[in-house]
TrEMBL record:
One of its GO terms (molecular function) is acid phosphatase activity. The keyword Signal applies. This is Purple acid phosphatase. Gene3D superfamilies: 3.60.21.10, Purple acid phosphatase-like, N-terminal. It is an enzyme of class 3 (hydrolase). Residues 166-243 form the Calcineurin-like phosphoesterase domain. It comes from Linum tenue. Residues 63-155 form the Purple acid phosphatase N-terminal domain.
Length: 264
């Protein structure tokens, strides 16, 4: 009996504590109104290769699949990644603060490529920009010659207990017609998320015969319109594992790494 009363009061205390936590977090974490958007239930099909969202930028060796993610835990570094298809080109990023366009800085990165079955990747560049100021808008450029491409991002505010910062969240995106609707919906959100938490399962290239890696390239070009401008923070899902014992003999072959949706 005593034990039961003690359990009941413990449970009551737990409920009170939970209420306090939730009511407090409701004040601290006000996400505003959520959307009424619901994806249709019908099975979706992948967008064909000639879709506009998959087209590479024009120009010889133009950087494509440009994407950024946070480069440290304080928000003062950003990793810029991109792919060049014709030749390595440059792994350098030029960047500057919005209000100091005359003070350009340079960060040097590296490139690599990989083979998978009958696929050979382009040149995959990673470059970390460090010592960035918080809450600051930066422009950055990748590429050389006639195919320089310019983007912009804003660094997060300094770390603190009650710092306002809005995250979006997407998982299982893929590259279907509904994927495009989902990404457009995210972009149009009036709350304007400043970074995105990606809950795994990116391209679904593994749905194709021999895990057709070209579908990683199409996916990279598809999401560039968002991830080149705000950091996406990655988590690997089961679709990132290229487990194909019929064509490769070493496992695991690849998993997505924290700083890139390209495999390394
Ligand atoms: Fe999934």
């Amino acid at each position: 009996m005593g034990l039961k009363r003690s359990s009941s009061s413990l449970f009551l205390s737990f409920l009170v504590a939970l209420f306090l936590v939730l009511s407090n977090s409701a004040v601290v974490c006000n996400a505003g109104e959520t959307s009424s958007f619901v994806r249709r239930e019908a099975k979706s099909v992948d967008m064909p290769l000639h879709s506009d969202v998959f087209q590479p930028p024009s120009g010889y060796n133009a950087p494509q699949q440009v994407h950024i993610t946070l480069g440290d835990q304080e928000g003062s570094a950003m990793i810029v990644s991109w792919v060049t298809m014709d030749e390595p080109g440059s792994s350098e990023v030029v960047y500057w603060k919005e209000d100091e366009s005359s003070v350009k800085k340079y960060a040097h990165g590296k490139h690599k490529s990989y083979k998978f079955h009958d696929y050979t990747s382009g040149y995959i560049h990673h470059c970390t920009i460090r010592k960035l100021e918080h809450d600051t808008k930066y422009y950055y450029e990748v590429g050389i010659g006639h195919t320089v491409r310019r983007f912009v991002f804003t660094t997060p505010p300094p770390v603190g207990p009650d710092v306002p910062y809005t995250f979006g969240m997407i998982g299982d995106l893929g590259q279907t017609f509904d994927s495009n609707i989902t990404l457009t919906h995210y972009e149009k959100n009036p709350r304007k998320p400043q970074a995105l938490l990606f809950a795994g399962d990116l391209s679904y290239a593994d749905n194709y015969p021999n895990h057709d890696q070209h579908r990683w390239d199409t996916w990279g070009r598809f999401v560039e319109r968002s991830v080149a401008y705000q950091p996406w923070i990655w988590c690997a899902g089961n679709h990132e594992l290229d487990f194909v014992p019929e064509i490769v003999t070493i496992f695991p072959i690849h998993v997505v790494v924290y700083n890139s949706f390209r495999k390394e």
